[in-house]
Amino acid sequence: MVNLGLLSGIKSAKSLKSLNVNFRIPYYTQWGQSVLVCGSEHILGSWNVKKGLLLSPVHQGDQLIWTGSIAVPSGFSCEYSYYVVDGEKNVLRWELGNRRKLLLPEEIMDGEVAELHDLWQTGGDALPFRSAFKNVIFRRSWSLNIERSEGLIQNKLDQEDSILVHFKICCPNVDSDTSVYVIGSLPILGEWKVQDGLRLSYAGNLSLETGSNRELSVDSSKNQPRYIFLSDGMLREMPWRGAGVAIPMFSVRSEADLGVGEFLDLKLLVDWAVDSGFHLVQLLPINDTSVHGMWWDSYPYSSLSVFALHPLYLRVQALSENMPDDIKQEIERAKIQLDGKDVDYEATLTTKLSIAKKMFNLEKDLILNSSSFQKFFSENEDWLKPYAAFCFLRDFFETSDHSQWGRFCQYSKDKLEKLISKDSLHHDIIRFHYYVQFHLHLQLSEAAEYARKNGVVLKGDLPIGVDRNSVDTWVDPNLFRMNTATGAPPDYFDKNGQNWGFPTYNWEEMSKDNYAWWRARLTQMAKYFTAYRIDHILGFFRIWELPEHAMTGLLGKFRPSIPLSQEELEREGIWDFNRLTRPYIQQEFLQEKFGTSWTFIAASFLNEFQKGHYEFNEDCNTEKKIAAKLKSFADKSMLLESEDKLCRDLFDLLKNIVLIRDPEDARKFYPRFNLEDTSSFKDLDDHSKNVMKRLYYDYYFHRQENLWRQNALKTLPALLNSSNMMACGEDLGLIPSCVHPVMQELGLIGLRIQRMPSEPGLEFGIPSQYNYMTVCAPSCHDCSTLRAWWEEDEERRHRFFKNVVGSDAWPPSECIPEITHFILRQHVEAPSMWAIFPLQDLLALKEEYTARPAAEETINDPTNPKHYWRYRVHVTLESILEDKELKTIIKDLVRGSGRSYPQAGQETPAITPEKKQVANGQEKNPTAMPLNGDRKKDLSEQLANECSLQDLFLLPNKIFVIYEWWNYGLIDINVICKFNEMN
Asked: Is the full-model pTM beyond 0.90?
């Protein structure tokens, strides 16, 4: 880029031609907000937003237009972007996508005005430039360089009232031999005929964008600029749509693995994905979770380190080319022993680490002195050193609870350097953790590169939390609120809410270094993945925060949120705060709940502070205290009922409140979730009930919306801007109204599960009505598989069969392949950008893969906090790679829906629709999928006259029908033009 120094070069300002640049952008802001332009040159602030050019608003029709002007020399060039700021020029949000580039031709006359007509770039506009598309799906060997357009000034302004318009449009998904034309209503734009339109400069194949016609109106006043640079955003192509497969890394089974899926198995999974027409492979989190040293660590969302990879996924056979025969034999024996129906987490991890230690002892100096290891170490030492030290201390003290580590409970760099010192007796233990992480990095990198070269997006998972006994909380405790726990309010997954146990984030502290911890985390993840799923994206708007002593998830509050103040409640006539915030326990309630055991419960756990009214004793007034006391009773055989039942019943007593008092400010309160279900609420007077119902509804559905929106717009961009990965958000559960607009603005792709519709009043989602910016799926890892769901509830199955399938017949009791095919076809034909299917649901397309009981294929039970994550696919990747019938069924679904699919063996994946050729005046597709003769005849007849186009316009999926016919070569460009005019 040429930097002219802006009037500060050798020549004086008088010797340079000067012209004005007007910025113009339509954008609606809230009161007190303004739009500002900031750029690379001094006159636009040199990327310091505080020094940028503040624009002025003007209403034009129903639009709010922001304008501003600067004087520049001819030939001026710069990069720039637009920002929304407050009255102090603090950035509230900024447009996403690539920075804009301005190049003014030298030939523009002195004193002239050049006006830039821009459109705000949303996150959706930036998606084609994310690595999933740019480096994998739309991969190109050529690049666009911005050059000055010679044709701009060659079109001389031959009349005084002439205006020169320079059209600009972004087309990231075009081949290098593709041309872009502008056609319009005027003769100079071809009067809607492509062959007579204006060909834009950057080379060559014909395509017509969809959507309503763009408009350009020019004022006839004398003040109208003679040069207009019209930036019309993105080319509106037929929406790109792809499909993928989802499976946890641990669930994969191959002939080479050692009891669990391994990173190198991903190469086989990529091969199967390509053969089946999938552009994406999605995994659950793959970070080290070795906190407890037992099967509890199978929970993939409770990471020991957000940077370290899990040793569970190491392929020990690949550690060395010179492996001794005795170790090879040990591996073969272990393969047989560990090849079970499910993952044996403890035995598998122990075996792998044992073998890895033997190879480490043989080759440690060779590996750790290699240049490749030295490069890995230098790039990762910031997290690798603390991780290795933590693992050593965890094993030495036999606990990950770093508060039990004596003088090492408080982390410091000085202590770290002593722990990892080469002179220490345990230095080889430290180096062993380096060694394992290095090989995990090599193996995952190999698989990731293989996926990229084969046109497959590798999608990772970003957990919302970290384990409270983790490397991250040890090193940076100030980033976490360690006296709290993270969870979710009651939802589809659990009517009692969820308690994940993670400490919540101290966002205020994280913002001080511009979220460096998050940025480092995403940068690390982007080394392997080109897309990622943000687990529980609602947590970036607000998190459900529980006290650390809670075990269940009901008695929480949102953070951040605006509490009910004591003054506010008193104005409403609410005074008795002890009555509302303490468990409401009456004798008749105890008798009803515990029967004849009520006296034992009252004597052991409660104190009668008034006649017939009870409160919990100090030693059992929290859930953790109750659980501990019950366990001690059970150990002494003092319980007449089951420990679990008594625990649930006592927890119910503890939750029988209306308000939760803020533990940090006794004058602030939060309404208990579903407070109307409590006997405490039901016994209130009518006035108090009405007040509490109104305040409850306001707190959960109105009061916080703007606060949560602002919070998300501060935190989420830090994630999105720290890597080039495509981001998807898991937006299930209780969804605030601010969530989807923010996700749309930031270009975040949402999630739609048919059995969990986000639309009120629907029992089953309607895939054909999903938004384009979504991932659709029939199930996910947090719920039962399609087969299991179908078999769980007979009445629900009948309702689905009637309302979704459209049949009054009684449905089959089992999810036969025909049912699976119908539901999968619904999803693959949906408008959603991505249709991603759990591997279990895909295997249900063939009866031979459904012999295993459906309930055994469920990955997680969210209602069980100690669920064992151990599901393994019952067939190997090698066997389904050989199953041509299954791959054909799946690929036909993908191909028949008009979704893009990769071509096996091609460096650059094919993109649907294929390149068109012109023959006899019509566009044809020489590589289109052949059609059945009768079908082709029927479709041709439908396009025979104007009436058929009108019928087509009424179809709900008209865009995809047009897309398919165009791909098959059944319609020419004139038909599409007519359709575009009608549309």
From this structure: no
